[in-house]
Amino acid sequence: MDTNLAVRARGVSRFFGDVVALDAVDLDLAQGQIHGLVGPNGAGKTTLLGLLLGLATPDEGTLEILGTPAGRALTAPDGVAGFVDGPGLYPSLTARQNLAALAALRGGTRTAPIDDVLHEVGLTDVADDRVRGFSLGMRQRLGLAAALLTRPRLLVLDEPSNGLDPAGKRHVHGVLTRLAADGAAVVLSSHRMDDLEALCSEVTILATGRVVFSGPLAKLSAENRELDYRLRTSDPAAARKLAEETPGIRPVEDSGARRDSEVLVFRALVPALDELVTRLVRAGVAVRELAPVVSPLEAAFLALTEQEVPAP
Ligand SMILES: Nc1ncnc2c1ncn2[C@@H]1O[C@H](COP(=O)(O)OP(=O)(O)OP(=O)(O)O)[C@@H](O)[C@H]1O
């Protein structure tokens, strides 16, 4: 067994009647890493996270969590915390009382100080307010605080950025990054590719219950993959002409960009892109914006799950 792995799944399947929610999933989650889980609706993300939380057991395959084979009993494995389908909270209790109730359930000895976790997720000011009046984002943060209370070595989160405003999101990202830096494994699902790219070192892409990619985000980089790019310059006409003359640059006509638009959209590999930028600079054309229309992760997601690329 690889002791650096927080999770090792081999051939894990899970069925709901005729529905194959997970189909022979292999997954390695390393300690000290934040791992993103993406996939279209119904791909099996929540089902997989539920297995890690002990909410269900695999119908086929083997699953090791923090070095222990997942048994048949439906209990959260020791050292694992998190939630799927939103955190379970008592609405009539305050944030602090919710955490105290959870700490009492855990025996109180192995938990982190309540004030510390409230501070960590930025809920100190509303610690004594009833959860009934909390927004979705505040509930998400309290759910995270509840998970942190148990000092998890594996944190499992389903759409943790749901309902968070930009400041709340930054807060949560900071918490997760610190947790991973301290050696915990974090796995989270999200439909927000920008969140995953900002946070995760590794991703797994699921499609209809199967793993279609799993590995470092860097492996999905633009190096070996043609992407669509948007280019805005000080001289759109000159830029268009230079792009047409540069080998490997293909204009994308059906992208919604009009001929007279200031923005040029084209498809290219990175070396052709480098060449075009060099030619623009040499011709005295200033590059004001050059960016992929969709990020490398989103492009891979769309390609691997066979979804249509939206027009820019
Ligand atoms: N309790 C259940 N009973 C029957 N079918 C289920 C159950 N839970 C999940 N499924 C089915 O299993 C498949 C995977 O569902 P799951 O919720 O894991 O997907 P998901 O990737 O989390 O989707 P979403 O992005 O919409 O949350 C779907 O076809 C779903 O309908």
TrEMBL record:
- Record keywords: ATP-binding, Nucleotide-binding, Transport
Q: In which organism is this protein found?
A: Amycolatopsis bartoniae
Q: Which InterPro entries match?
A: AAA+_ATPase, ABC_transporter-like_ATP-bd, ABC_transporter-like_CS, P-loop_NTPase
- The residues covered by the ABC transporter domain are 7-233
One GO MF annotation is: ATP hydrolysis activity
- What is this protein's name? ABC transporter
Q: Quote the PROSITE patterns the UniProt record gives.
A: ABC_TRANSPORTER_1, ABC_TRANSPORTER_2
User: Is Ion transport one of the keywords?
Assistant: no
Indicate the family of this protein.
Belongs to the ABC transporter superfamily.
